Amino acid sequence: MGFKCGIVGLPNVGKSTLFNALTQTASAQAANYPFCTIEPNVGEVAVPDPRIEELAKIGGSAEIVPTKINFVDIAGLVRGASKGEGLGNQFLGHIREVDAIVHVLRCFEDDDITHVEGGIDPLRDAETVETELMLADLDSLEKRVDNLTKKARGQDKEAIAQLDLVKRAIEALSNGKPARVIERKNEEEAAFQALQLITAKPVLYVCNVEEGSAATGNSLSQKVEAKAKAENAVAVAISAKIESEIAMLPLAERKEFLEAAGLEEPGLDRLIRKGYELLGLITYFTVGPKEARAWTILKGFKAPQAAGVIHTDFEKGFIRAETIAFADYIASKGEAGARDAGKLRLEGKEYVVQDGDVMHFRFAN
User: Among residues 105, 89, 346, which one has the least CA distance to residue 220?
Assistant: First the structure.
């Protein structure tokens, strides 16, 4: 399953520096992980997860294949993008294709780097980008009203339900609120997602701070964190400059560099994990002599759906899943120990896969 986070932001906020650090990280990983490939505007990066190393050691796996997430560098945005200003149309087209938005905000002062809006104000910058996205969504929704209204008059139940959602979304957007804040019932979710609204996508705010604030953030990033909390979004403070330096260092030198900067881990690791969590993703594992592999699924997937991520035939012919919780696999020192200890479970079609499960699927050809 491929998941994409689109990186957006105004000019000179550190968006390109951050993306370059991600792609440099992907390049470094390519030596160890066979799946890493880089396109001009896509960085495919392994999701940091120390569990897979432990599993591989116990399982005697010859190869480690971590799960991954894609970060897409989206063309810069300026005021008027929703009306086609700058690269507006290209920007909006690309952002509709991603699963979540990583919004980079400048939270540092630097007289040598000018700001497109004059001064440093991340909340204003966030509002500038969000306004353009909301205007684009409004335009998209307003074009649908007449057609849906005609169908609703003809007692088309699907049109009636969708028109109600469209009107609620238009009201929220007209009041300066993104579509993701609209309250909706579980049974409305599929219809809501079908509207393909940009501001319905989950958002991760990246506060690009100066090097000295990389470990703790600063007063500007704290304002963004408060905004994110109020919106049920996520925020993370990192220094794009430090991350670009870390990404170019040999692995052996990174620990010392991080310690000198007062960091326990690269900020990119936190960013990648936050993006993973934001998309509602979890990981399960398969372990064997050939490889230990992490697989990405949506939280709530049942066993057959999880099996289908490996191969569609696994889902179609699903019989059962042999399942060991991660902690039990480690404590029992592998599959044989877990089986002997009664920790290996046989799960059927209704089993909801848990994060960290070690699984082996039985299926009929």
Answer: 105
Start-to-end Cα distance in the chain: 23
Q: Can you tell me the distance from the alpha carbon of 18 to that of 255, in angstroms, rounded to the nearest whole number?
A: 20
The span from the CA of 268 to the CA of 246, in Å, is: 10
| Dist CA 4 CA 352 (whole Å) | 24
At residue 15, the pLDDT reads 85
Residue 12 backbone zone (phi > 0: left; psi -120 to 50: alpha; other: beta): left
CA atoms of 180 and 234, how far apart (whole Å): 13
Alpha helices in 175-294 (DSSP H): 189-194, 219-231, 240-248, 251-260, 267-278
Tens-digit pLDDT profile for residues 163-219: 989 999 999 999 998 898 888 888 888 888 888 899 999 999 999 999 999 989 999
Burial label for 69, CB within 10 Å (0-12, 13-18, 19+), is: buried
Segment (H or E) for 42: strand 42-46
Q: For residue 121, which amino acid is it? A: D
Q: What is the pTM of this model?
A: 0.81
What is the chain's alpha carbon radius of gyration, rounded to the nearest angstrom? 23
Under DSSP, is residue 36 helix (H, G, I), strand (E, B) or coil?
coil
Strand 203-208 relative to strand 100-106: parallel, antiparallel, unpaired? parallel
